Amino acid sequence: MGETYAVLGERDRGARLYDLLLPFADRNLLAGAAYLCLGSSSRALGRLAHTAGWLDAAAAHFERALELNERIGATAWLAHTQYDYASMLLERAQSGDRERAIALLGAASTTAAEVGMVALSERVAEVSTAEGLALAH
What we know:
The protein has 137 residues and is mostly helical. The protein has 7 helices and 2 strands. It has a two-stranded antiparallel sheet with strand order 1-2. A hairpin with a 4-residue loop joins strand 1 (28-31) and strand 2 (36-40). The chain is globular and about 40 Å long. The termini are far apart. The model has no long low-confidence stretch (mean pLDDT 90).
């Protein structure tokens, strides 16, 4: 649901889901009977906060998601988190955000290429081109 609300820009529904998910910020999202790990719930909270326009809260959730996804070895979800966080930082545009976004996009690009995440690689390239960013690999 969180992904859907974020993609569709559903601020109100996303905010309600954010409130429900917040107590589980330090957990991983699992599908089925734990057959599929969807990474840190902090990434979902970051996306929902970003959608709601709570950019500072989104940054805090994305930072936590980076830590948790790296710790559990959720490489694909780490790359998604790096991309999502970078996108939010480019929108927020505070001091240092652009530089951090470039580093995050570079890391996401490298990881996506290493594990064959073609769609994510394309999204990183699109954002980088649109923003005029030169990524270090």
